[in-house]
Structures are given as structure tokens and as C-alpha cells.
Automatic annotation (TrEMBL):
GO CC entries: cytosol
Keywords linked to the UniProt accession: Glycosidase, Hydrolase
Signal peptide: none
InterPro entries in UniProt: GH, Glyco_hydro_1
Protein name per Swiss-Prot or TrEMBL: Beta-glucosidase [Lactobacillus kullabergensis]
Family: Belongs to the glycosyl hydrolase 1 family.
An annotated Gene Ontology molecular function: beta-glucosidase activity
Keyword Hydrolase found: yes
Source organism per UniProt: Lactiplantibacillus mudanjiangensis
GO biological process: carbohydrate catabolic process
Amino acid sequence: NSKKPILPAEFLLGGAISSSQAEGAYDEDGRGLETQDLRYFDYHWNREQRDHHRNVNITTPEFNQAKVTSQTDNYPLRRGIDFYHHYREDIKLLAESGLKIFRTSISWGRIFPNGDETEPNQLGLAYYRDMFKACHDNGMQVFVTILHYSVPVHLVENYGGWQNRKMIDFYVKLAKTLFENIGDLVDYWLPFNEINASRFNPYNGVAIIKDQFANEHDYLQACFQALHHQFVANARTIELGHRLLPHAKFGGMIARFTTYPATCLPADVFKAYTDENIKNYFYTDVEARGSYPYYMVKYFKRNNINILMNSTDKELLKNNTVDFLSFSYYMSMIDTVDIKEYRKTSGNLVSGLKNPYLKTSDWGWQIDPEGLRTSLNEMYDRYQLPLFIAENGIGAYDKVENGKINDDYRIQYISAHLDEIAKAIIDDGVPVIGYTLWGIIDIVSCGTLEMSKRYGIIYVDLDDSGSGTGKRLLKKSYYWMQRVTAGLKG
Ligand code: BG6
């Protein structure tokens, strides 16, 4: 089929990870404790317990116990894949697969261990400088997420996390420190990972734990207030970044919960439409259009939610919108007014209803490459901004047989998604800058804390208990990726 659209040569095909899922070394070189370090996991748990646990909020006794222990056995995010000590070899391997860009996040606690210091930790800055230099030396561009779900525990305990407006200043101080010390090495910036997912995730330093609130209203009020602080922090970061680094590009990012109506019943169509607004577009509307959209103003009114704003917040949001938009895309979901008719399916942050037309991954995530093309078109039509797919990939059980990993399912998944991106670019005319494959090297799962939920084209020999040599093995998908990237070079 010679007519199949192919990705343009300038397309930035790359890989992504996050600091908390990969680095390990949670207490080395002056790093302070972060919220993700507190997440407990027991590898003896069965599947049901694993699934159950991820839906349980941190409770105060667990939080306190986690804070004082220095064990890593039950805290897989403290170990990661020890990327902290292996980044040079890992980056070299990634570059040798032909990837053109590497996305990772900053560990806030490495730069400001408590989050509210006046002076940064030089060892933390030196680490990221060296890592990003290694990327450039190996021919890869650098894509930095400033905050990917993990904040210094001190900020949660002493200020209440993002519910407190003071967080804005601490965060902007972090951003400024990064701009001044590593800004010359970064090509694309994402101030916040999946800003629409914050309030679903009690661990991420928004520190909003439902049980702490007397009722649903108070909980929602706190969530949206915290979110407002993140929007303001985002705008101030962009304002500062544009001033200090005139060539840098700043993006907004959401977890894209692409939602179809389960049927053509008009009420289902409207339900899916409002889902899209509330779960996805609200966030990108603020970041790209610069104001709270009309449907959220109504939503707040209806739910008696009052966002406290400073007199300059609205102007700040209006004047400091993003240069590009990005999103993670793993699956699509469906919605209906008649929920009892449907079975449930799982997902990373929200679970949805089962779409009878789609197959699922080992973890029950619905695989839908065409939904990516639709999502790209919808996003571009709405904002007319360049797009970047910051995460996509498949978590699967990989088997090592005679030293080889034949992950054909992964090749199929990635290839199908890249084909849809090519169609969006070539056939539909959507400007998509790039794509960073999630968990390009196996890392600890953010949702389930399992190591066995692997996304990488590079295998890491560690299991759910943390045992293993830590050795890196190249999967079949790695060699496949080499051929794809060679094709991109023309
Ligand atoms: C995204 C997060 O929502 O999903 C990542 O940004 C995460 O941190 C990814 O790892 C995949 O989810 P999981 O739960 O399979 O690791």
C-alpha cells in the first residue's frame, strides 16, 4: 500500500519517563522526601489487592509511618530503576535507537529538598545539567516536565500542598532556578504533567484527600481552588520563561480522556460532549484560551463553588497562554445515561465503560489508535496550536526467553498509533510536532506501582519486589524502533 501516509522527516519521535518512577536514589545527594516516595506496595498482594489498593487514598497513619521509615522494599518509587546512577548508559542506548527527543521530569526535592528553601541544592542541578548535556551529546533534544505528580512532603505537611496559594511562589522559584541553571539545555517545557488529573490523584502533592473533608462540596471546593493555584503557577512560569528564555516553547498537557457516546441516543451524545468539556477541555481552555470557559462558570455556580482569585489572576491567565498543547493518550472510553447496561473497564486515572468494538491490554485498557487521530483533529480544530503527544504506550507482561523479548504486541500498538498520527498530519493537516513513547525504558508503574507492568523498548531486569540484576536488555521493539527512526531520516 504505497499510499499509506508516512511521518514527516522533522517529526520528533522520542521517549518519556518521569523522575519519581525511574530515578530511585530517593535520599541521595541531598534530595528531600517527596509525596511519591510515600506510596506503599506489597508484592505479595494478588491482582485484586493491587487493584484495590490503587483506589485507596493515603490515610494519615500510613502517611506518617511512611515518612519515618527508610526502607525501600515496600516503596518501589524510592528504587525506580536506579536511573540516577545509570542515566549515561541509558541515554546512550535510547539515542542508539534513533530517537530524537527525551522527556523526563524534575524531582523537586532534588533541587529544593523541602520546597521552601531560598538556595537550591547544587548537586541536584548538576545532575540534571549533566543528564541533559548527555542527551544533546547523543543527538537528542530535551523535553522537561517541571512537575510530574511529586512534591516535597514538607510542602504538604507545612502548607497543605496546592490548596495553599503560597505553593505558587515555591513552584515559580523552582521554575526560575531551572531556567537560570539548565534553561540553555531544554528545548520544550511542560510546567505540569496532566493538569486535569491532579485532583484524581491524592499522592501528587495537591494533597487533597477526600476523607479529610466533611462532604463532597468541601472536597470539590478544595480541589478546584488547588487547581486554580496550578493554573496561576503555570501562567507565571510561562511569563517568566518567555522573558528569560526567548526561544523556549511552553506547553500545556492533559491526560486525554477521549469519550464517545455509547449509543446515538441524543442524551448519550450530550453526556459524552459534557464529559469531554469537564474532563479535558476545561483545562486546555484555560491554558490555551486564557480564561475559565462558560460551562465551568455555570458548573461552579450550580455546585456552589467559589474560587478565590487575586485581582490580577484573570489578566495573568489571559496574557500567558501556552505555545503548544500536548496530551497523554492510552485509550478511549464511552459514556451513557444508562450506565447499568454496561460493564466497566479500567484506565490509568479514571475507569470507563466497556466499548464492545475494542480490545484491551493486559491491564484492561481499551486499545483505540483511531481515537488518537480523532483526538488530534478535535484538539487542533479547537485551539489551532501545534500538538505533541507526550505519552502513549502499552503496559504489558513481557517474557524473557533465551535472553530475548519478543514484544510483537507492543510493536503492533505503537505502529498502529504512529500510523494514525501520520494520517492526522498528512491526510488531515494537523500540525503534530512529536511523540514521546511512555516508559521508553521499563519503569515502575505510576498507577499500580508494579515493575511487571512494562512499557519500554528497553527491558530492565527487576521484578515487583525489586529483585533482579537491573541489567538492561533490548526488546524486539527496540530493533523495530531503529528501523522506524532510520526511515524518518529519509
Ligand atoms: C500517565 C502518567 O497518566 O500514565 C504516568 O503521566 C504513568 O506517570 C502513565 O506512568 C501510565 O500509567 P501506569 O499506571 O500504567 O504507570
